[in-house]
Amino acid sequence: MAHLVSVEVERWPVAGSFTISRGAKTFVDVVLCTVGEGALRGRGEATAIYYHGETAEGCAQAIAAYCKGLRGRPLTRQTVHRDMPRGAARNALDCALWDLEAKREGAPVWRLAGLEEPRPLVTAFTISVDNPARMEEDARKAVRRGFSLLKCKLTGEGDADRIAAVRQGAPDARLIVDANESWAGMDLIAETERLAALGVEMIEQPIRHGEEGGLAGLSPALPFCADESCQDSADLPRLADFPAINIKLDKAGGLTEALALAELAQGQGKRLMLGCMLSTSLGIAPAFLLAGQAEWVDLDGALLLERDREGGLTLDRGRLVPGTLWGGG
């Protein structure tokens, strides 16, 4: 029977800094969860959703408390999904159990989950918020590294100037943007028209979570993608005016819920984006299995760190290549 072997918090430095409308980060704390069954071990990693008030330490404590409270009852993906709330703690434990199951069954997680075998995929590379000149230079460097899809962080002030500069630095790149809820109270139609003229193809989360009704009746020039507004499948009824959703395993609370969310959203005709928090490749690998179904893949979290785990995903001309550190290959 599966049991918790260990749960710990690790700190990983960011390469430079990662800046969005809410501030800058120079490191990320992740939760590393290990479960076991006999000699077998499964690992899962998660990053706390800080804007929900989560912390890595709190997530680690929640995992330990849940497993201790089982008192001999089975530790399974099904019970974890049923008993724990959505969020990073459940994600780490759920993914560790998937990894353990793959080792027990001698089959990769993608096959156990009924997914296609993962293949190299184009990922977006994030251009952090900065002045236009710096964002132009960062875009130029990203293109030189082989990235063909850039995701630009915005602040709600001077955004068109920033994107014009990025377009100057990367004239042929595909562009998507993430407002991180910073467009509240702005003229959304006018903003989308400005960015559409610069070749942007999608806008993530322009409005604040909880204000989704403000999109009713709008016909923007670009599709809006729900990020903060979409945590798991329970949120879908509120998202009629978002044609796309961003699935992140840390928000959804694991691969198990992400699979359900993807199926329900696609059944409603929504377009998918697969995103991530800052993390190592161990946190990215489970999401990568679902990314083949997505129109936009934004799984560069490990690429923004100074270093990664051994066996992690690798980069080949702007494409992520599956690694070997999780899920049975």
Automatic annotation (TrEMBL):
CDD domains: L-Ala-DL-Glu_epimerase. One of its GO terms (biological process) is peptide metabolic process. It comes from the Bacteria. GO terms for molecular function: magnesium ion binding; racemase and epimerase activity, acting on amino acids and derivatives. It is an enzyme of class 5 (isomerase). Mg(2+) binds at residues 178, 204, 227. InterPro entries: Dipeptide_epimerase (IPR034603), Enolase-like_C_sf (IPR036849), Enolase-like_N (IPR029017), Enolase_C-like (IPR029065), Mandel_Rmase/mucon_lact_enz_CS (IPR018110), Mandelate_racemase_C (IPR013342), Mandelate_racemase_N_dom (IPR013341). Keywords: Isomerase, Magnesium, Metal-binding. Its EC number is 5.1.1.-. Residues 132-225 form the Mandelate racemase/muconate lactonizing enzyme C-terminal domain. The active site is at residues 153, 248. The keyword Repeat does not apply. Binds 1 Mg(2+) ion per subunit. Its cofactor is Mg(2+). Belongs to the mandelate racemase/muconate lactonizing enzyme family. This is Dipeptide epimerase. It comes from Sphingobium jiangsuense.
